[in-house]
Amino acid sequence: MSPRTPLALLVRPGLALVLLPLLLCLPASSGPRHLHPALATLPPRMLWAWERPEDLRGLPADTGVAWLARTIELDGRHTLVRPRAQALQVSPGTVLVPVLHVDLIWRRPPRFSDEQRERVIQEALDLQRSTGAKVLQLDFEIGRSQRPFLAEVVSQLRRRLPPDVALSMTALASWCAGDAWLAHAAADEIVPMAFRMAGDDAEIRALLARRGQFPRARCQAAAGSATDEPMPALRTPRRYYFSPRSWTQEQWQQLPAAAPLDPT
Predict the structure, then answer these.
(1) Which residues sit opposite 83 in a β-bridge?
(2) Which domain holds residue 132?
(3) pTM of the model
């Protein structure tokens, strides 16, 4: 498969999920909920290694890699699975988190059937078993009307993963800014992507500049940024970084470290 940006990171203006003028009126929220023990073992900086050749040897101890391991395409009634096709090189001891990316083929809208849901869950379980990872990340593009499908995938997957394995999921920034639907999501970690925010960009950046964190408590333990966009100064224990091109040593050496949450 040719390298491309995950669709979950390319937010179309038509998929905006909140009325952002209301964001600045949101009350402050409490901190993140109970941290899964496996998440505590992750370093504070994680590089997303997408579907392109990546040489990440020599990363410091405070930096791990969340690597695209498998892609599922939901295409009408069909479910197509593509394993990673590009080389990934890391040093021994580098913390690795496999990522399952679910891609929706909008020209042939998915049926979101029970069979497709079960296939996604089975592929995720197989990915965790085959890698032995203690943290698994789900990267899923979804629109408002398909939220129940994603919520059920996450709920069932969390129940069927071993208790000592943490489930992470990416999220649109708007889900974590003014949209409360993730409050009861079964994922152990939610990673709002503070980039590729399309028409919501200015409002969300203003919100983050004022608060230093997303207002939704479930979205305060981690956040994602991109190397080709301004990075908000966020108070969050862990930052994930996306590069639209293969990483270079100069790039990752210049990345800011994660900032802890304000205890107040």
Answers:
(1) 70
(2) 7-23+40-253
(3) 0.86
